[in-house]
Specification:
By secondary structure, the protein is an alpha+beta fold. 27% of the residues lie in helices and 32% in strands. The longest helix is centred in the N-terminal third of the chain and has 26 residues, at 3-28. It is globular and about 35 Å long.
């Protein structure tokens, strides 16, 4: 067999194998469900809303991770500029909180998860300009059938109309969110 034919056969095999791996990975991704939302209360405080499809109302690993929106360093606030300029070598850069394990779904101030969650916190626990946030959690069962998340930044929350919540599907009334979350399950 010529070197050329051997290389072409190997390239074809690698392509087929890559396709199989990609299809397998895509098939294992949990379904994204509209079970996470954020809103601003009448006093101007941001809140998190987490809903669960589990009979006992649990969620797995709720978290709020804020990451620097890539922009010129001059346009970033000091805390964001420091994260871009001096990142520790082996540590992922984020601000917010992370609560590993299983917890009851809840409605709470965005940067104050329930105390019993014993959440790890990093950085400022307030909305920061120049950051994009993701509020997320996973299916509490071992099946990992679904996940929930909503991505936002401070300007989006600032423009949110009174009585509305923000989900990955856009803005809606709180009642519409609660109804959608119930139907989704």
């Amino acid at each position: 067999m010529s070197v050329w034919a051997h290389a072409a056969g190997r390239a074809g095999f690698v392509s087929v194998l890559s396709g199989i791996i990609m299809l397998s990975a895509a098939g294992c991704s949990p379904e994204l469900r509209p079970l996470a939302a954020v809103y601003v209360d009448p006093q101007g405080n941001a809140h998190a809303l987490l809903r669960s499809c589990a009979d006992d109302g649990r969620v797995r690993g709720p978290e709020l991770h804020g990451s620097v929106i890539r922009a010129t360093e001059e346009a970033l606030p000091d805390v964001a500029r420091d994260a871009v300029s001096d990142p520790p070598a082996a540590e992922e850069q984020w601000i917010g909180w992370d609560a590993r394990g299983l917890h009851k779904a809840a409605d709470f101030p965005l940067f104050t998860p329930p105390q019993q969650w014993a959440a790890e916190t990093r950085g400022p626990q307030t909305l920061q300009p120049g950051y994009s946030y993701e509020l997320a959690f996973g299916d509490p069962d071992d099946s990992y059938a679904y996940s929930a998340s909503v991505t936002f930044d401070a300007p989006q929350l600032g423009k949110l109309p009174a009585g509305e919540v923000l989900t990955f599907q856009g803005t809606m009334t709180r009642k519409a969110f609660e109804d959608l979350a119930q139907r989704t399950c």
